[in-house]
Amino acid sequence: MATTIRDVAREAGVSVATVSRVFNDSGPVREETRRRITEVASRLRYSPNSAARTLSTRRTQTVGVLLPDLYGEFFSEVIRGIDQVVQQRSWHLLVSCSHNERSEIEAGLRAMRGRVDGLIVMSPDLDEHRLARNLPDGLPVVLLNCEVADRVFDTINIDNRGGAHAVVAHLLKQGHRRIGLITGPERNHDARERLRGAREALVAAGVAPSPELEVAGDFSELSGHRGVLALLKLDDPPTAVFAANDSMAIGALSALGERGVHVPEQMAVAGFDDIPIARYVSPPLTTVRVSIPELGGRAVRRLFGAIESGAAHARRQELLPTELVVRRSCGGLSRATVDRGSDVGTHAN
Amino acid sequence: MATTIRDVAREAGVSVATVSRVFNDSGPVREETRRRITEVASRLRYSPNSAARTLSTRRTQTVGVLLPDLYGEFFSEVIRGIDQVVQQRSWHLLVSCSHNERSEIEAGLRAMRGRVDGLIVMSPDLDEHRLARNLPDGLPVVLLNCEVADRVFDTINIDNRGGAHAVVAHLLKQGHRRIGLITGPERNHDARERLRGAREALVAAGVAPSPELEVAGDFSELSGHRGVLALLKLDDPPTAVFAANDSMAIGALSALGERGVHVPEQMAVAGFDDIPIARYVSPPLTTVRVSIPELGGRAVRRLFGAIESGAAHARRQELLPTELVVRRSCGGLSRATVDRGSDVGTHAN
DNA sequence: CGCGAGCCTGTAAACGGTTACAGATGCCGC
DNA sequence: GCGGCATCTGTAACCGTTTACAGGCTCGCG
C-alpha cells in the first residue's frame, strides 16, 4: 500500500539501514548516496511509519494532556501554551478530557499508555494514590493546579492565594470594610486557595471574615449574577465584591446593572483571571492576571526536562506568579499595582 | 521492561493468540481460559502496546484535528464538540495548530501521517490542491469552514450568510435604515460570508449598502471598539451596528458606554456567535447562535462514516443552521425569532 | 470403535521501522 | 603488495501485536 523504507531502499539501490540513517541523521552516509536517497524518497512520497518507529524505539514524540474539561477560555489557553512549545520541538499533542469523572480520569490515563512519552494532568479531584496506580510506571508526569501533599510529582500551580490576597488588600486600601466574596466550587483547588487568600487579607487588615458575606458560586456567569443579588439582600450589604473568577464577576456586573446599582460608586467589583473580555465590560473589570498559556508552556518544558533526564529527574513544586490589574470597576485608578507575588521555584505547596 | 502479551501468555499457560483473542473479543475462547487470562493480565497490569497494534492492524483509533489557531472560545468549543464524540468511541484526539502559516499547515498534515485514521481540517487559507498534495492518499478528511469549490471533500460550514441576513433583517424590521457593519478580516471565509448576508438583507429591503457604513475589524474586541467610534464620527451616523462577531460587538458596547451613547435607544448593537458571555454584558447582546460544539461533533461523525465506508464514501457539503437570538441590545423584545435558516444536507456551497 | 463436526488453541508470518554487528571498500604508508 | 585504519554499507534480529491456518480435543452418533 503505502511506500515503505524497503521500497525506497530498493529503488535507490541501497539497504534499508542506509535509508534509515539518512532519515534519522544517524551514522555516516556518503554525500552522493544521501542525495540519491532523499531524491527517491521524495519522488515516492515516502514518509516513515510512525507506529513502526515507535515500536522499535519506544519513543512516541507525543505528549498527552488530560484536562478536567474543555469548556471555557481557560482550557483553550492552557492547550495553546502547551501546543506552542510542543510544536517547537516537532512533537505531537494528544488531548483528552475527563469530565471530572474519576472513572474517566483513570480510563484516560490508561488510554494514554504507550501513546505518549509524558503526561500533563490537570485534575483537581485526583489524589496521588489513584494517580500513581493508574500511571504506567516511569512515565513522566506534570500536575497542573492539583493539590498534592507529596513531593513525588512535579507540579505547577497558579499563585491563587497571593492573587486573591492582593486584590482584597487593594479593596481594603480603598477603604472598603464589608467585602462580599463569591466563591468558586468547594471541591476546586483554585477556588479554595482564592478564598483562603481573600480571608487572609481581611484578617491581616483586622477585618473578621464573616460567613454571611461569603456566597457560593460555581465559576459561571449565572452564579455570579445570583451571588451578588444575594449579597444585596443583606441587612447591611457589602460595598465591594470579589468574585473568584472573571465570569462570575461579569455576571455580578450584569445583575448590578439591572438593579441600577452603580459600579464602582455604590459597589466595587473585582474578579480573577483577566480573561480577554474583562477590559471590555463596563466598567472595565479589576482582576488578577494569570498567564495561562505560560502555565501550559512551563508544564511542557518541565515535562521535556523530565523525559530527557529520566528517573534521575528531581521533582519540583512551582508557583506561577499573578499580577493585580486595577481597572474602573473598583475605582482608585492611581496605579496598576504589581502583585505582592510569590517567587517561582522550588517551593512548598 | 513493560509487560507484553507474551508475559501474560506464559503466566496463564496459553499462547499469545489466545490472549489477543481475549483482549479483542475476536474468536472463541473457553470461559475458564478467558477468566484466567484476564486475571493474569490485571495482576501483571498488562495493557496492549498500541504502537504494535497499530503497526499490525494499520488502525490508530485516533482522529487528527488541524486548526488555524487555538486562540479564543471558538476553537475550544470546536475541540470540545469533537472530543465528546471521539471519546464516546474510546478513540483519541491528536490536535495541532498551524498558526495560519501555509508551511505549517503542510507540515502539520504530513506529521499526522500514520498517526491518525482521519483528519478534521479547519484552515480558511488552504486551497484544495495543496491540501490534496500533502494528504496521505486515501486518508479521510472533513473540512470545516473552508471555501472549496470542488465537491471532492466533505465540508461542514456555518450558515454565516443566513445568520447575518436574519440579524440585519431584524434590525431593518425595527425601523433602522442606516446600519453600520463592522466586518471581520477580509481573508476569513466566515467574515466574507457574514458581510455578504448582511448586504443581501439590506438590498432585499431596498436599502443600498454604503461603503462608508462598513468598517473593517479583525474579530477582536479592540477592533470593535475602534470600529464603532469611526462610525460615530460620520456626518450621518448609523442608528444600529452589526458586528461580524460577538467579541467586536462587545468592544463596540464598551466604546458606546464610554461615549455615553445609550444602547439600544440611541444605537442598536448586534453580534454573531452567541458566546457564553453575550447574555451577561449590558445590555445583553442580540446575536446569532451557532452551536460550535455541534460543528465539531458533526465533523467527527461524518469522519467516522468516511472511515468506515472507505473509498466508497460519498462526499457531502453541509451547512450548519443558525438561530437569531434577540436580546436587549437592539430593543424590540417581542419574540426570539428563529432564523430563516438553511436546510442541512447535500447542498451546494 | 471410528469418525465427522464443532469448538478451542497454538504456530508462525506479517506489519515497518531501528540498530548492533559484520563486512566491504578505499586510501595510506611502508 | 599488503596490513591497518577509517569510512561507508548491508544483514538480520528485534520491537509487540494480529491473524491465517493448521491442528487437537471433545462429543455424539452410527
What is the radius of gyration of chain A computed over CA atoms, rounded to a whole number of angstroms?
26 Å
The count of β-strands of chain A is 12
Average pLDDT across residues of chain A? 87
Q: Main beta sheet of chain A, described?
A: 6 strands, parallel
Shape of chain A: elongated
Backbone structural class of chain A: alpha/beta
Share of helix of chain A, binned: 40-55%
Oligomer: homodimer
Task: Write structural notes for this entry.
2 copies of one chain form a homodimer. Chain A has 349 residues and is an alpha/beta fold. Chain A contains 12 helices and 12 strands. Chain A has a 6-stranded parallel sheet, with helices on both faces. In chain A, strands 7-6-8-9 form a 4-stranded parallel sheet, with helices on both faces. In chain A, strands 10-12 form a two-stranded antiparallel ribbon. In chain A, helix 11 links the parallel strand 8 and strand 9. In chain A, helix 1 (5-12) packs across helix 2. The N and C termini of chain A lie far apart (54 Å). Residues 334-349 of chain A have low confidence and may be disordered. Strand 2 of chain A pairs antiparallel with strand 2 of chain B. The structure holds a DNA duplex (30 and 30 nucleotides).
